[in-house]
Design brief:
It comes from Sphagnurus paluster. Pfam families: ATPase_2. It is built from 25 helices and ten strands. The chain has 654 residues and is α/β, with parallel strands linked by helices. The chain starts with a helix and ends in a 19-residue tail after the last helix.
Length: 654
C-alpha cells in the first residue's frame, strides 16, 4: 500500500511535465499557423498585367480594340498568327484605368484540371471585388461580395477533404463552376446598380434645407404678408442668381465652400475577362460539360446581361471550329491582327532599329531586302538585327535563325514523307496504277511522316482526344506518322505561293484542289496561316489585283497572255477564268501632265472591290516562311537535272 502511494506520487509530476510539454507544443503550432495565415493574407496571388516595354504603337489595331470595348459588352475573339503582337496590343489597351482585367495567361496556366480551374476563377473574382472595395470610395460594402467567393471556396475545399475516397463529392464538379459563375453574375449586377453617392446627396440636400430655414427664421417679416414676401424673396433670389454668380448670398457661399459637398462620381471600371492563348483550353480542361458551362456563362455575362467584356486571344485559326461545336462562335465578334504594314515597318526600322545599330554597320542593312524576307513581323526584325550586330555585320539573311528553321521545316516534311513505309508501299504498287495518278508520276512520294504541330486536341475530333506522351516522343521518327498531306501536295501549294504577285490563295479554292484534310494539315503544321476575316491593317500597303492567285482576264484575253500592265495572268487548275467588266474611268490630265490624287485615293486600288475574295484566305505562316519556300521550290525544280523526289517543271500537272 505504501509502495503504491509512493509510485502514484512519483507519476503525477511526470504526467504534469508531459502535459505541459504537449500544451507548449500545441501553443507553438497554433502561433505558427496564425503567423502563416497572416502572411498568406498579405501575399495575394495577384496576376501580373501591365504594359509591355518598348511597345510599338499600332493605331489602327488599338482603335479596333478600343471600339470593341467602348460598345456594349461582347464576346470578342482576337485571331492572329504567332508573334503578331496580340498580347502586347491588348495589354497596352487593357492596362488603362477604366478597365479591370481578370487575366488568364494559358502559357503558364494556373489550372490544368477542373479543381484548379475553379480555384483560379474563384481567387481572381474575390480579388476583383476586394480591389473595388479598397480603391473606390463609397464601395466598401463590396468586400462582402468578395467574402461570398471566399466562403464558397472554403465549402468546396471542406467537402472535398471530408468526402470518402470513392465518393463523387471528392471531386470538383461542373455544378461548382456553374454556382461560381452565378455568384459572379449577381455580384456584377449589384456593382452596376450600386449608387454610392445617393445617400450622401440626400444628406447634403437636408443640410441645405436646414440652412435655408435658419436664414428664413433670422429674417424679420410681417406676419400678415409672410406668404407673399416669401414668394417675392424667392423670385428675387432667382433673378440675382441668374444675373451673376459673384453676388451670391453668404449662406450659399458657405454651402459651396463646405468641405462636405459631394465629390464627383467615380467612373466604374469595366470588368474584362481575358484568356490569352485560349486555344489551350481544350487540352487543359477536357471536361466537355465544364467547358460548355463556362462558355455559356460568358455568353450570359456579355450578350444577355451586358455585365462585362470577354476576350479570347488565340493564334490557332481552328479555335473557332471548337467554339462552333459549343454553339458559341456565331455570337462572337472576330478581330484579326496581322503583321505591320510597309509604312509601319519602315517607321519602326527608322525610329527604333537604326538608332541602336552602330554607324559602321548600318550600310549593310537595306530596308527593301529585309522587308522581302521578314515582312512586317517586327519580332523577326528584332531578332535578326540583334544577331547582325553581335556578328559584327557578317550575318546574311539566309544565315539567320528564322530562315534556317523555316527552310529545315519545309524540307523535313518532304524528306520524311519520301522515306516513310507508306511511301515505299505506294511505290511498289504504283506500276499498275493509272498514269494520271500523281503517285505514279512521282514514285516514292507518300503521306508526310513528320509531325510538328502542337500535341493538342484536334478541333475536328471528339473532345478529350489528345496525343499521348509516347506519341510525342516518337514525333521525330521518319515514317512513324502519316500526316494529313503528302509531300507532293505541299510542293504544289508552295509553288503557288511563290508565283509572282500572289499574296494569298482562297481557302476554299485550295481545298477543292488539294482536299480539306491536306490544307488543314498544312495549317496545323504551322506552314500556312488561315485568316477567317480581313486583318485590321493591310500588310502590303497597296493591294495588287493579282495578289489572290485568281486571274482576271479582260475581254479577249486568255491564259498565259499579259494584261495591259505587263503582269502575266495566272489561273489555278480547274477554275475557269473570271471575266471582269472593264471599268471606264475618265481621266482629265492637269496642266503639268500629272493627275492630282489625294492620299486616300493613293491607298485604294481601283480593282480592289472587284478582286476582293469573299471568305477565308491562306498565306504562308510567316514572311520568312514564304522567303524559304522560294529556295525549297528551286531545289525541286528541273534545271538541267531530274529531282529525286519531285518535278515542278510540268505546269500541266498542276
Amino acid at each position: 500500500m505504501i509502495f503504491q502511494l509512493n509510485q502514484s506520487s512519483n507519476s503525477q509530476p511526470a504526467e504534469a511535465v508531459r502535459s505541459l510539454t504537449e500544451s507548449r507544443r500545441l501553443l507553438e503550432e497554433a502561433q505558427r499557423e496564425i503567423s502563416e495565415t497572416r502572411e498568406r493574407s498579405q501575399l495575394r496571388p495577384k496576376h501580373t498585367f501591365s504594359r509591355l516595354p518598348a511597345f510599338f504603337p499600332r493605331r489602327a489595331e488599338m482603335q479596333a480594340v478600343e471600339l470593341a470595348l467602348e460598345g456594349e459588352p461582347s464576346f470578342t475573339v482576337l485571331f492572329g498568327a504567332s508573334s503578331t503582337g496580340k498580347t502586347a496590343l491588348l495589354r497596352e489597351v487593357l492596362s488603362r484605368e477604366q478597365y479591370h482585367v481578370l487575366h488568364f495567361d494559358l502559357r503558364i496556366a494556373g489550372f490544368a484540371d477542373l479543381a484548379s480551374l475553379y480555384m483560379s476563377l474563384s481567387q481572381q473574382m474575390q480579388l476583383y471585388f476586394e480591389e473595388i472595395a479598397k480603391k473606390m470610395e463609397g464601395y466598401e460594402e463590396f468586400s462582402r461580395e468578395a467574402w461570398s467567393f471566399k466562403y464558397d471556396r472554403q465549402n468546396v475545399e471542406t467537402r472535398v477533404a471530408e468526402a470518402p475516397a470513392d465518393s463523387k463529392s471528392r471531386n470538383v464538379k461542373t455544378s461548382d463552376i456553374a454556382r461560381l459563375m452565378e455568384l459572379f453574375q449577381s455580384s456584377l449586377l449589384k456593382y452596376w446598380e450600386f449608387q454610392p453617392y445617393v445617400e450622401e446627396e440626400h444628406h447634403t440636400n437636408g443640410k441645405q434645407r436646414q440652412s435655408s430655414e435658419a436664414t428664413s427664421d433670422q429674417t424679420h417679416v410681417n406676419p400678415g404678408n409672410s406668404a407673399a414676401t416669401l414668394n417675392k424673396s424667392k423670385r428675387w433670389t432667382f433673378r440675382r442668381t441668374s444675373k451673376t454668380k459673384r453676388r451670391e448670398s453668404e449662406p450659399a457661399s458657405e454651402t459651396l465652400n463646405n468641405p462636405e459637398t459631394p465629390k464627383p462620381k467615380q467612373t466604374k471600371k469595366m470588368p474584362v475577362i481575358f484568356f490569352d492563348e485560349a486555344h489551350k483550353l481544350p487540352s487543359l480542361i477536357q471536361c466537355t460539360d465544364a467547358m460548355k458551362c463556362l462558355l455559356d456563362s460568358m455568353l450570359v455575362l456579355t450578350k444577355q446581361d451586358r455585365l462585362c467584356h470577354v476576350i479570347h486571344a488565340t493564334s490557332d485559326p481552328f479555335y473557332q471550329t471548337w467554339l462552333r461545336q459549343f454553339n458559341v462562335m456565331q455570337h462572337c465578334k472576330i478581330i484579326t491582327i496581322g503583321d505591320c504594314s510597309r509604312s509601319e515597318t519602315r517607321a519602326f526600322f527608322r525610329d527604333q532599329v537604326l538608332p541602336n545599330v552602330p554607324e559602321r554597320l548600318r550600310q549593310g542593312l537595306k530596308f527593301e531586302l529585309l522587308y522581302e524576307a521578314f515582312g512586317g513581323k517586327l519580332a523577326h526584325w528584332n531578332d535578326y538585327i540583334t544577331d547582325y550586330v553581335n556578328s559584327n555585320g557578317r550575318l546574311e539573311i539566309k544565315q539567320s535563325s528564322h530562315f534556317l528553321q523555316a527552310h529545315a521545316l519545309l524540307n523535313l516534311h518532304i524528306i520524311h514523307s519520301s522515306q516513310s513505309p507508306n511511301a515505299q508501299e505506294a511505290a511498289e504498287t504504283s506500276q499498275a496504277a493509272n498514269t494520271s495518278n500523281p503517285e505514279t508520276l512521282h514514285p516514292g512520294l507518300g503521306p508526310a511522316g513528320f509531325k510538328v504541330y502542337p500535341p493538342m486536341m484536334s478541333p475536328h475530333g471528339p473532345p478529350g482526344t489528345a496525343d499521348t506522351p509516347e506519341d510525342r516522343l516518337n514525333a521525330l521518327i521518319a515514317g512513324y506518322y502519316s500526316a494529313d498531306f503528302s509531300a507532293m501536295q505541299l510542293l504544289k501549294a508552295m509553288s503557288r505561293f511563290t508565283q509572282q504577285d500572289t499574296t494569298y490563295i482562297p481557302y476554299f479554292l485550295l481545298c477543292r484542289d488539294l482536299g480539306v484534310r491536306a490544307v488543314d494539315g498544312m495549317v496545323k503544321a504551322r506552314l500556312l496561316d488561315l485568316r477567317w476575316t480581313e486583318t485590321v491593317t493591310k500588310e502590303n500597303g497597296l493591294d495588287d489585283p493579282h495578289r489572290s492567285g485568281v486571274s482576271v482576264f479582260a475581254p479577249g484575253m486568255g491564259p498565259g497572255m499579259r494584261t495591259p500592265d505587263g503582269i502575266p495572268s495566272y489561273s489555278p487548275p480547274g477554275v475557269d477564268p473570271i471575266s471582269v467588266i472593264p471599268i471606264a474611268v475618265d481621266v482629265v490630265p492637269s496642266e503639268e501632265g500629272m493627275i492630282p490624287v489625294s492620299e486616300n485615293e493613293m491607298q485604294r486600288d481601283m480593282y480592289e472591290e472587284v478582286m476582293e475574295v469573299v471568305g477565308p484566305k491562306l498565306l504562308p505562316a510567316t514572311p520568312i516562311m514564304r522567303f524559304a519556300m522560294h529556295d525549297v521550290v528551286q531545289e525541286y525544280e528541273d534545271e538541267q537535272s531530274m529531282s529525286e523526289y519531285a518535278s515542278l517543271s510540268d505546269v500541266d500537272e498542276y
